[in-house]
Amino acid sequence: MTMNKKTSNPAPTTDPPPLPPNRNQQSEPKPSFEQVLLESMQRSVIDSIRKGEWLKFEYNDRLKIESSLLREVMQKIDMAVVIERVKDHVEQRIADKIMHSMEQEVANDVKSIMSNRELREDIRAVIREKIRSCEKALSKE
Predict the structure, then answer these.
(1) Model-level pTM?
(2) Is the per-residue pLDDT at 111 higher than 70?
């Protein structure tokens, strides 16, 4: 008895093709033109707001200010008053930047120290000793 090569290898399994829609089942109604248009308009408005395009001034519609008026206003500005008002804010920002830089440097130094196992264990020993001495001092009171 000889075996047919085609029957010795099982055929690959595939999903059966989808059945055609049953005419008795009701399919979802297609949206009307008005509904599609409304949804499209809503998406367009939302995209415009998301992109910040809802308030946009054209260059040609800008308010034109006479240069003589600008010169007059600039002459009346007391720069000492401007500097006095801005000074505290600028000083605070500079101090914040310096502090942030110092914090980063300390954090980097601590990371490099803590990555060395011997140094890490030495630091822990010192800290444990300090904690014990603090506990003793507090227990005496």
Answers:
(1) 0.39
(2) yes
